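can u do me a favor
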């Protein structure tokens, strides 16, 4: 195997080279198939810094503006453990029109 990829990491784990900490979505199928198992580590809190960039001087769609507002209001300083203790809100959906470019 050459290079680094999640597929390589999963193969190393299958070959018992070690274990890996990866995003759950990367191993969703393997967890469902039972070829890999998840080991819960509740005391391991690994924040993942995320940045949002957008054009503030040019056109931003209504949907993008709504997402910017949601992300801006989010309490990023709340520890993950405290966030997990909060009740899960009922999922909501918003339907917005799709802007089509003319040209």
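np, heres the sequence
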């Amino acid at each position: 195997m050459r290079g680094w990829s999640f597929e390589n990491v999963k193969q190393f784990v299958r070959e018992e080279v070690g274990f890996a900490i990866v995003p759950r979505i990367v191993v969703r199928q393997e967890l469902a198939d039972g070829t890999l198992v998840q080991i819960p580590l509740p005391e391991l809190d690994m924040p993942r810094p995320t940045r949002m960039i957008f054009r503030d001087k040019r056109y931003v769609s209504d949907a993008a503006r709504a997402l910017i507002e949601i992300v801006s209001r989010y309490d990023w300083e709340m520890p993950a453990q405290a966030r997990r203790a909060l009740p899960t809100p009922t999922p909501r959906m918003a339907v917005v029109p799709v802007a089509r470019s003319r040209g």
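Residues 28 and 34 are 10 Å apart (CA to CA). hope that helps!!
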